[in-house]
Recover the amino acids of this structure.
């Protein structure tokens, strides 16, 4: 999942990444919560993550 997440975020395909995170099934409640948390983070930040300044320094 992490490799897939990195590939999609590197390509700035944030909406696709959110869709994959939300569509990934898990019977493990901790994993399901982590998937929701990740999707909930990426979704509202998609535009910011597309900016060249984010690509240069994603932790700013």
């Amino acid at each position: 999942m992490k490799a897939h997440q990195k590939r999609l975020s590197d390509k700035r395909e944030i909406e696709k990444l959110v869709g994959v995170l939300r569509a990934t099934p898990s019977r493990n409640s901790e994993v399901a919560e982590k998937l929701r948390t990740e999707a909930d983070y990426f979704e509202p930040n998609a535009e910011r993550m597309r900016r060249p300044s984010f690509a240069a320094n994603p932790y700013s």
About this structure: Residues 26-52 form one domain. The helical segments are 2-10, 14-23, 29-42, 46-50, 52-56. The radius of gyration is 12 Å. DSSP finds five helices and no strands in the chain.
